[in-house]
Amino acid sequence: MKCRFINKVGWDKKLVNESYPWVEKQIVHRPKFSPFQSALRDSLIDTGVSPYNGFTYDHIYGTKVGGTIFDRFGRRHTAAELLASGNPDKLTVLVHATVQKIVFDTTGKRPKVVGVIFNDENGKQHEAMLGNDVQSEVILSSGAIGSPQMLLLSGIGPKDELQNLNISVVLNNPFVGKGMIDNPMNNIFVPSNRPVDVSLIQTVGITKKGVYIEASSGFSQSNSSIHCHHGIVSAEIGQLSTIPPKQRSIEAIQAYVKSKRDIPVEAFNGGFVLTKVGSAWSVGELKLNNTNVNDNPTITFNYFSHPYDLQRCVEGIRMTIKVVQSEHFTNYTLCKKESMEKILNISVKANVNFIPRHANDTTSLEQFCKDTVITIWHYHGGCHVGKVVDPDYKVLDVERLRVVDGSTFTESPGTNPQATVMMMGRYMGVKILRDRLGRLAGI
Ligand SMILES: Cc1cc2nc3c(=O)[nH]c(=O)nc-3n(C[C@H](O)[C@H](O)[C@H](O)COP(=O)(O)OP(=O)(O)OC[C@H]3O[C@@H](n4cnc5c(N)ncnc54)[C@H](O)[C@@H]3O)c2cc1C
């Protein structure tokens, strides 16, 4: 259990302790341990990230091996499988439905949700309306990008921003879309003289410096495209979030394409050891560009705008370099122990993003952090508790609407958040059912 986080959000510990195993039993597995991950484990312990806590779901200082959603046959399991526990007679799942907006009755004292408008896969519009009983409600779980976006599109948000887009204001709440946070990730490249096994994150070092050290390794190549690694893949699919859209000039995109050509050939063999800043303090915001739900909003995370994030990244990179230089890795990858400058130099090239490089990338760890930052996709915020929703995740000053997802977090839980987000789904489901039963029984 992620104790500090659970205390901070004020969840009922007993129900939390029942809800994690409910998820874990259905879709979480013990990983088949790969040699690259063993090298990381041994290097972390030798570098002082101790004690070794073995295989555990607990988030505790030291080095550990965590659970995975890949089973021993390599099959991936997902949150969708948890639906199997539901009662199919009471459940309708519309897989290709895209909600366009939430509809309100604004004639009363407070806006009251009456339903949602959604489009099917053919673009045909439908309405799903709530029943009249007091227990009916809409629960928004569109994630840290989708939920603030949906509230804004539906008229809940900063009045000026809504009016600029001619959206009728249902409720002026200046905090919707604010407090967006993404944990910065920076990679240190581990060169290898031979192809290494493909592995995703299994081992993690949870340091007292506030950074988590994890790794992924091995690549499959086809037609010179690169698959599988966090850093490079994120460069291809997630990179846009690392710089403000206005800075995405033609030159920046050309530099990106060129930098892809410059990826050293060793990058196809080795792996990466990554540093994630645990609880990021730099904060950004999300704003709509238009009223089309299919268009991405603009999100600025302002990576490293808070000096504490930069300080922790530097600490993390320093530790990570020691980890990569340890004999566990050099023996395993058949590479000699390289100097810090050489490791940074190759890592600068192997990390791909749109951010222009600087001459001092290999001599200033601060510059290295800023120039090679990428996302680990653990972004959260936009609908914080106390600002947009109450502690029961009910949208403030609105009736019959909740937000239950990562948009309500002020920090990303655990080393990787999805276990806690899924647990939260079960937790809130049970809590809402209990409340309803209590109400029915007149308690
Ligand atoms: C590429 C990638 C890799 C990741 N890897 C890991 C990992 O290894 N481990 C880990 O712990 N975490 C990982 N994460 C993070 C993790 O997936 C998220 O933290 C988690 O899924 C957040 O859950 P959520 O419920 O808040 O939002 P989501 O899981 O994003 O769920 C939101 C859902 O709402 C849907 N939606 C949005 N808008 C609408 C709309 N208008 N109408 C209908 N549906 C809508 C979306 O399609 C989505 O299905 C990864 C994330 C990404 C993107």
Automatic annotation (TrEMBL):
FAD binds at V99, W377, H378, G406, P417, Q418. One of its GO terms (molecular function) is oxidoreductase activity, acting on CH-OH group of donors. Gene3D superfamilies: 3.30.410.40, FAD/NAD(P)-binding domain (3.50.50.60). This is Glucose-methanol-choline oxidoreductase N-terminal domain-containing protein. Pfam families: GMC_oxred_C (PF05199), GMC_oxred_N (PF00732). Keywords: Disulfide bond, FAD, Flavoprotein, Signal. Belongs to the GMC oxidoreductase family. PANTHER family: GLUCOSE-METHANOL-CHOLINE (GMC) OXIDOREDUCTASE FAMILY PROTEIN (PTHR45968:SF18), OSJNBA0019K04.7 PROTEIN (PTHR45968). Disulfide bonds join C313-C369. Its cofactor is FAD. It comes from the Eukaryota. It comes from Trifolium subterraneum. Residues 143-157 form the Glucose-methanol-choline oxidoreductase N-terminal domain.
